[in-house]
């Protein structure tokens, strides 16, 4: 079983910023295409962003493009997501995902790792 440590989730006001991280301790992410996906209360899992195994190619959903930035540090075995100009509709639990096949833009194409981190955007 993969063990991951998430950090960075918090309560923030609209317009604020956060940086999420997902650090793997029992497996390597270096050879994998990785993603962030999110799930808002009562909604389905939503794909947010993907980064290729060696970078620099990155992909974003239209809802976060220009506001979020995905990155990775393979030496630290860690995936990051910088969230800027946060909106109330960004409120969700955010998860790392490891690509297992299919379309990059489909949340079902990723194996969700760990328990995620909660981001709440509210005034």
Account of the 3D structure:
- With 123 residues, the chain is mainly beta.
- Helix content is 0%, strand content 50%.
- The chain is built from no helices and ten strands.
- It has strands at residues 4-7, 11-12, 18-24, 34-39, 45-51, 58-60, 68-73, 78-83, 92-99, 110-121.
- The strands form two sheets. The chain has a six-stranded mixed β-sheet, with no helix packed on it. A four-stranded antiparallel β-sheet has the order 1-3-8-7, with no helix packed on it.
- A hairpin with a 5-residue loop joins strand 4 (34-39) and strand 5 (45-51).
Computed over alpha carbons, the radius of gyration is 13 Å
Helicity level: under 10%
Number of DSSP strand runs: 10
* Biggest sheet descriptor: 6 strands, mixed
Structural class: mainly beta
User: How many helices does DSSP assign?
Assistant: 0
**Main sheet: strand order:** 2-10-9-4-5-6
- The fraction of residues in strands falls at over 45%
Spatial gap, N to C terminus: 38 Å
**Mean of residue pLDDT?**
94
- Uncertain segments are none
Order of helices and strands: EEEEEEEEEE
| 3D shape | globular
């Amino acid at each position: 079983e993969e063990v991951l440590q998430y950090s960075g989730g918090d309560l923030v006001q609209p317009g604020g910023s956060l940086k999420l991280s997902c650090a793997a301790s029992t497996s390597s992410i270096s050879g994998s295409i990785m993603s962030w996906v999110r799930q808002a209360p009562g909604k389905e899992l939503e794909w947010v962003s993907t980064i290729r195994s060696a970078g620099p190619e990155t992909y974003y959903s239209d809802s976060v493009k220009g506001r979020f930035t995905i990155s990775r540090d393979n030496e630290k075995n860690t995936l990051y997501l910088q969230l800027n100009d946060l909106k109330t509709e960004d409120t969700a639990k955010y998860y790392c995902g490891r690509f297992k096949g299919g379309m990059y833009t489909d949340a079902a194409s990723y194996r969700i790792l760990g328990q995620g981190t909660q981001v709440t955007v509210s005034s």
